[in-house]
Design a protein that fits this description.
It is built from 21 helices and 11 strands. The chain is of the alpha+beta class and about 550 residues long.
Length: about 550
């Protein structure tokens, strides 16, 4: 089965001329010979550009490879711009599997005899079908007897076997590329496939996605910026998820949004605010915000609200990464390239031995021409990509959390400019970042920290006298132990010095006894000297430090 799949993949790559994308001198002799042996598998799409051939090849190989291409499209630091744009066009729409099979999976996952035990209605015809799962509509009666429209997401049957087989082949191919491509170290094909494996396997676990949705909903509870549908946890499992059905306008349907009178400028600006709120306030952000996962509520066009779905991929940032990113963004706004370079070193993103002056000069070379343009004409996402490309020249390692952030920012900016072409992302983001930084380092942060820790301090306050007494008591006991140890050490040093002197005298007397014995006929002076040697040696032995007291 694996050999058959490998042949199919090889045939697809060669039929689309993907071997032409790698110079022959980069390939080992065995691969070049193998290519000549497969002479009947020629390039059937010579008229198409390389990016289009790669996109079509991935589409023909199936859903696992399609999603891999989608992920690669966000890695513009690794791919030429034309190839990245082609991969961004990959569509994740595949043929649905039978609805009765989906129903059986749901019944088995929920432990039901029939699906009617859980749902008042269930439509076997899929609403949508993608590479990992498909979605059905239904009706759920809640505990109050109120009927709720729902969607039921079901993982494709046997998809794990297909994924494992294709991932295994991808890893083998990545090892070959890493070993033989001259640029293999920078491109890191094995790390890219490893990152893709984690992302894909996370998407297979709908229990994880349900937890992500619940967390995001809690973060934006009552917010006018973003609405997250309700997840019905009692009906969700690893391969089944039930959540509220939403009725919104797809974010990509700009004509319908305008026809409904939606405030497009406010909508675009709120998209930026949603992103920065998730990243800097919550440190937990939706990392798959492509147009298919974002809708707009039609209820209040003058005060538009986003609706998010599909929470299989989320990103998180720790406190240090968050602060360094905010300071990086602000340093960009102020064109302080020295600060940007120093922040990359301080954060550990580039090695400590990096020459700050050279790094600053490289960043200025990338960014200064950009600032000659009007702010509205500058792509903030591409500035970030160019920065990462520059940093990679200075041995910056791939930071997974920053890759997800970069991908999400590119999505957000692309959507914003589609909705409102005059969107100035820098002008929109800067006040938010400055306000957040002031809250992190100013008196507001001090008050917030006091407020956050006050209950804990109040709980521990009655214990303070006892803790203080115990600390002072232990400190006094420790000081006494230190004095005793110092005294013992001094005594041992004195004994060691005395022992050394007796040992030296014994050695000198032994030499004297030897000379007397050799050069004088009477033997008794030598005998006396030998006796003194033994006496001095005994004193040296008695004076030595007692090792048992150390």
């Amino acid at each position: 089965m694996r050999i058959q799949r490998l042949y199919q993949i090889t045939k697809t790559f060669l039929n689309y001329g993907l071997d032409d994308l790698v110079p022959a001198r980069w390939l080992p002799w065995s691969v070049r010979i193998g290519r000549h042996l497969l002479f009947w598998l020629g390039n059937k799409h010579k008229e198409k550009p390389p990016g289009a051939r790669l996109r079509l090849a991935l589409e023909s190989l199936g859903p696992v490879w399609v999603k891999f291409g989608q992920m690669l499209s966000t890695r513009r630091d690794l791919l030429p711009p034309d190839v990245a744009l082609e991969l961004a066009m990959l569509q994740d729409k595949v043929k649905p599997f039978p609805g009765d099979q989906a129903q059986k999976i749901i019944e088995q996952a929920l432990g039901l005899l029939t699906i009617k035990e859980a749902f008042a209605d269930f439509d076997q015809t899929p609403l949508a079908s993608a590479s990992i799962a498909q979605v059905h509509t239904g009706v759920l009666t809640d505990v109050k007897g109120i009927e709720r429209e729902i969607i039921v997401k079901v993982i494709r049957p046997d998809i794990r076997k297909t994924i494992d087989a294709d991932l295994s082949l991808m890893e083998t191919l990545a090892q070959v590329l890493a070993r033989h491509l001259p640029d293999g170290r920078r491109l890191k094909p094995r790390e890219v496939v490893k990152e893709y494996r984690k992302t894909l396997l996370d998407e297979l676990n709908l229990a994880r996605e349900a937890a992500n949705a619940i967390q995001l909903r809690r973060n934006f509870e009552g917010s006018k910026l973003l609405y997250i549908p309700v997840v019905y946890s009692d009906y969700s499992r690893e391969n089944v998820m039930v959540m509220e059905r939403i009725h919104g306008i797809p974010i990509s349907d700009v004509d319908t949004l305008r026809a409904n009178g939606v405030d497009m400028k406010l909508l675009a600006e709120r998209g930026v605010e949603v992103f920065f709120t998730q990243v800097f306030r919550d440190s937990f952000f939706h990392a798959d915000m492509h147009p298919g996962n974002i809708f707009v509520s039609p209820d209040n066009p003058d005060d538009p609200q986003y609706i998010g779905i599909d929470f299989g991929i989320v990103g998180t940032l720790n406190r240090d990464d968050k602060r360094y990113l905010a300071e990086n963004f602000l340093a960009f706004f102020n064109r302080d390239y020295r600060k940007v370079a120093e922040l990359h070193v301080d954060s550990g993103w580039v090695p400590a031995h990096t020459n700050i002056e050279d790094f600053e000069s490289a960043i200025r070379t990338v960014c200064e021409p950009i600032f000659q343009k009007p702010l509205a004409d500058i792509s903030f996402g591409h500035v970030l990509v160019n920065l990462f490309n520059t940093a990679r020249r200075f041995e910056m390692e791939v930071q997974p959390q920053l890759v997800l952030l970069q991908k999400t920012l590119l999505y957000v900016e692309g959507l914003g400019r589609q909705l409102y072409p005059q969107l100035d992302l820098w002008k929109t983001a800067k006040p938010y970042l400055e306000s957040w930084m002031h809250e992190q380092i100013g008196w507001r942060k001090v008050l917030s920290s006091v407020k956050e820790h006050a209950p804990y301090w109040a709980e521990k306050l009655p214990e303070v006298p006892t803790l203080l007494y115990d600390t002072l008591h232990h400190q006094r006991s420790f000081q006494q132990q230190q004095v005793s140890l110092i005294k013992q050490l001094t005594e041992q040093q004195e004994r060691a010095a005395t022992s050394r002197w007796w040992t030296l005298l014994a050695g000198a007397m032994l030499v004297s006894a030897t000379l007397l014995f050799v050069h004088l006929k009477p033997w008794w002076p030598a005998a006396i000297a030998l006796g003194l040697t033994a006496g001095f040696a005994w004193q040296g032995f008695r004076s030595r430090p007692d090792s048992s007291k150390k």
